[in-house]
Amino acid sequence: MQVEETSIEEIQTKIKRLNSKAGQMKMDLHDLAEGLPTDYTQLMDVAAATYEIYRQLDELKQELKKLENAK
Question: CA 30, CA 18: separation in Å to the nearest integer?
Fold first, then answer.
């Protein structure tokens, strides 16, 4: 049971960090989109990085839900 608690806490900490990073990436993507066509060459890289952060966040949230339901 102690192992599960630690895992849940670790995942919650990772989710908090990723949420913060994801919010910043979302704002960066928004700022880049507002400035189009200037810096359009960066669009795909920023979009891909933003997608990856949100994919990781979704994965962690699903893992957390499984651990919480297993209690």
Answer: 18
**Which domains does the chain possess?**
1-70 (1.10.287.660)
Q: What's the pTM?
A: 0.83
With vertex at residue 20, the alpha carbon angle to CA 17 and CA 21, rounded to the nearest 5 degrees, is 85
Q: Which amino acid is at 64?
A: L
CA triple 62-52-7, angle to 5 deg: 35
Q: Give tens-digit pLDDT for 1-57.
A: 455 566 899 999 999 999 999 999 999 999 999 999 999 999 999 999 999 999 999
The two tokens of residue 61 are: 């949230």
Count of alpha carbons within 13 angstroms of residue 28, beta-carbon side: 17
Burial of 48 (0-12, 13-18, 19+ CB in 10 A): exposed
